[in-house]
Design a protein that fits this description.
The chain is an alpha+beta fold. 41% of the residues lie in helices and 23% in strands. The protein has 16 helices and 17 strands. The strands form four sheets. The chain has a five-stranded antiparallel sheet with strand order 2-1-5-4-3. A hairpin with a 5-residue loop joins β3 (104-109) and β4 (115-124). It starts with a helix and ends with a strand.
Length: 454
Amino acid sequence: MTDSSNRTEDRSSDPVRPVEPGSDAMHRAIIETAASPFVVLDAEGNVQWCGETIEALTGRSAASVLGHHFLDLIHPSSHEAVIAEYSQFVSHDHARQAWVGPPMLVEILHADGSSVTCEVSAATGSRYGLDGLVTQIRRWSGTALLYAAVDALAAGAPLHDVLAKLGAIVEHSVPGSVVFVAASWDGARFDVVAAAPGTPPALRRLGTRIAEISERVWRRDDGMPSSLQGIAHEAGLASCWSIPVTVRGDHHPSAALVLLRPVDAPPPPSDTSVVRVTTLVALAIESDRNRRAWRRSAITDQLTELPNRTGLEEWLRARAAAHPDAAMAVLFCDVDGFKQVNDELGHAMGDRTLQILAERLRRGVRDDDLVCRWGGDEFVIACADADAAERLADRLIAAVGEPIGLDERTAQVGLSVGISYGTFATPLDDLLRDSDRALLDAKSNGRNRYVVRA
C-alpha cells in the first residue's frame, strides 16, 4: 500500500509535459480549463461530461452533476424556454446534423439555492462521434440581449418593442435600475414610452408621467443627464436620470433614456453600455421613421397627398374586417374640362388645379369617408353611409364647380360622378366596374352630374 502511495506521489511530482499544438491533449486542456465551462449531454439530455470550471460558476463540482438531467440544473423559471429549444433539437433530428443553436439566456441553479443568469450555446457533437449536445455556459454579459434587440430592429419590429429590448440591456448593465425609453417627442409629450422587461408592475405606471415630463427639464443639447427627482420620489428610489438622445438629422434631442436608480448618482460616463444603447435608440428611431415614410409613400399619391389605389384597398380591407355587411357606396369621379386647363395654362397649373380640387373633395366628405386619387384627373370616393351617397355627389359637384384662382388666371371645371352600391366586403373591382359604367353614362348625358348604376 505504501509503495503504491509513493508511486502516486512520484507521478504527481513529475514535470508537466508540454502539449503539441493541435493535438488531442491541447484540445482537452482548452476544454477542461475554459473559464466558461463545457457540458456534454447525451441524447436523453443527461450530463455525460462536464468541465471542472463548472464549480466556479455554480458551486457544484463536475462529478456532482454527472448523470443529472439538464433540467435538474436549471431554475424552473427557465424550464419552458429551454424545453422549447431542446424540443426543436430533437424534433428536427438535429442530433445527426452539424447544428449550432442560437445563444439563449438561462437561469442556472447555484449550489446555495440562488440562480445565476448565464448565456448558453449548444451544438451537436455528431461530427465528432458524440450522440448528443455540446453546450458552453457563460456568465451572462448582456450579449444575448444585444442580439435580441438588433434582431428585432433588423426584422422591423414595432418601435415600442425594439426600445423595450434596448432598455433591457441597460437594465442588465446598471444593476438595480428601472429603465424606460421615451421616443417620438411631438413638442408636448413623448408618443412612445417603453419600459424594460424587468420593470416592476407597480412602477410601469410611471410611463405616463415620463411621457409628459417638461421639455425644459429633459431636453439638453449637450447630451448630459438631467435629474428627474419628482419621478424618483414617486417611485421610492434615490434618483431618476434622463439621458437625451438625438437622432441623425435632427437639431435637438427627440428621445430619452430614463433610469431610476437606488443611488443618488447618474450612470458613470465610463459605462459604455449606456452610450451604446443611446446610439442604438437613435438608430431604431431613424429606422422607424424611414419605414413609416416608405409606408406612407406606398399608399399616398405624391401630388395631392390623398391615398392612392393601394391606400384605398387597405382602407376597404380594414372596414371589411370590422363591418363586412355594412352598406356603402363608391363614387367614381372624373374632372370635366381638365384637359383644357392643362393645354391652355400648362402642366404646372394643371397640377395646382388637381391639388386644389383634391382639397375641395377632402373637405366635402365626412370623417368616415375616404377620398382617393385614382389617376390622372380621376378620383374615387368610398362613402361609408350609402344613404348619403347622392347628397354627397351633389355637394362635391357644386364644390368642384367653383372658380379656381391660379395666380392671375381663373380656371373653371366640372365633375361627373358614377355611383355604385355594395358592402365593405364587396370586391372593389365589382364596385369600380359598376361605378365606372355609371360615370360613362353621366359624361354622355351632358357631364357635371351624377348617375347611379342600377
